[in-house]
Amino acid sequence: MSVPALHLAVELDGDGAHPAAWRRAHHSPGRLLTPRRVADVAAVAENAGFTLITLDDGALPPGSAPDPVGRIGAVERAAFVAASTSSIGIAPVVPVTYAEPFHVSSQLASLDHVSGGRAGWVVTEEDRPEAARVWGRPVVDGAEARARESRDGVAVARALWDSWEDDAVIRSVATSRYLDRDRLHYIDFSGRTYSVKGPAIVPRPPQGQVVVLGHPGTVPAEALDVALVTGRDLTAVAAAAAAAGTPRVFAEVEVALDTPDATGAERVADLERHAPWADQGRLRHIGSAGQLVALLDELSAHVDGVRLRPLVLDEDLTVLSQLVIPALSQRRLIARPLPGTSLRATLGLTRPANRYAAVAVQEDAR
User: Fold this and answer.
1) Of 60, 136, 160, 308, which has fewest CB within 10 angstroms of its CB?
2) Is pLDDT at 361 greater than 60 in this prediction?
3) Residue 214 in contact with residue 122, Cβ under 8 Å?
4) What pLDDT, on a 0 to 100 scale, did the predictor assign at position 30?
5) pLDDT of the residue at 298
6) What's the mean pLDDT in 154-159?
7) Which of 321, 241, 305 is nearest to 91 (CA)?
8) Helix/strand number for the chain, H first, E second
9) Is 173 part of any domain?
10) Does the residue 186 lie in any domain?
11) Which of 364, 226, 230 is nearest to 299 (CA)?
């Protein structure tokens, strides 16, 4: 009996998961905010065989949080990486607590076109009141209100991706028409805090729908393609995965691996002198590559994939690429994504039918 492939994602924001990771980085501090750095790290992940990279983001400027973070926007980084990669999925973090979902949907549809169908979207929330001032909007106060904004934002984006039928662009020289306007649709969304009429300004994404990832509770399960689940141990992760109710489930795992120069525990202790590695409720592995392989083997019985958050990218990504992924490949636990394959296809997700075209077909059949 064949074992389903475990998909590996990796978070590539900054220099690593630890707030002081930059102290162990193998590059000059000024190189972090350069396109070349983004492309180089993404190339390592793609060549290693990762299914997906994610790129964290946030609206607040450096110094507004306990751990100063400076970064290029996630969507901009994703678009740059798309041009220099051919197989790996690319999923920027884009909160819709305050951002306009119409513009978010356009950005992500554009990313899917640029990447040839490899775009994903990690939906998160802006939970700090200071973020409202950045956007010039009233504070969205409370978990329920933030969840509503995320739910509505995803609903609007998904409807807008369907607002162009696949064959809406006809480019007819004979009739001098670029579009068939009958194949463009108003979405007529009306929520508690805003309404959107549409249609989109970008043609339907190559995948039909960009792959949507998020944490259960932030977005309803029926709106997600991939649930990101947490838990401090294997039992908790397995329970969260079983309750997710989404087509695919990825576990969140933080890793600090042994390197030729120091053990994972020694590297963590070195960075803890400068800042604490906050407990986010995620499964955390500190130890050898072999132990991580065994852990991922166990996780494969409960989840479809894992999103890894390396302690220090320049150190842990090398170990992941040279020791962990080859060992997983030997056990046939993972499969590399193929060039020219969409992210949906790589994850075994079908390309969804356009909701408006399907309604039209049903009406014509009556």
Assistant:
1) 136
2) no
3) yes
4) 85
5) 97
6) 97
7) 305
8) 12, 13
9) no
10) no
11) 230
> For residue 211, what are the β-bridge partners?
120
Total tally of structural domains belonging to the chain? 1
List of residues 6+ apart from 172 with CB closer than 8 A: 178
Tally of residues, the chain: 366
- pTM value is 0.94
**Residue 194 falls inside a structural domain:** no
Residue whose token pair is 């492309």 = 39
Q: In whole angstroms, what is the distance from residue 97 CA to residue 20 CA?
A: 28
CA dihedral 90, 247, 196, 109 (to 10 degrees): 20
Q: Domain residues for 358?
A: 7-161+202-365
Q: Is the peptide bond before 199 cis (omega within 30 degrees of 0)?
A: yes
> And the tokens for 31?
């190189």
Query: Which has the closest alpha carbon to 120: 135, 107, 133, 101?
Result: 107
Distance CA 33, CA 29 (A): 8
Whether residue 169 lies inside any domain: the answer is no
Please report, for the domain that includes residue 311, its CATH number: 3.20.20.30
Spell out the residues 6+ positions from residue 145 whose beta carbon is closer than 8 angstroms to its own: none
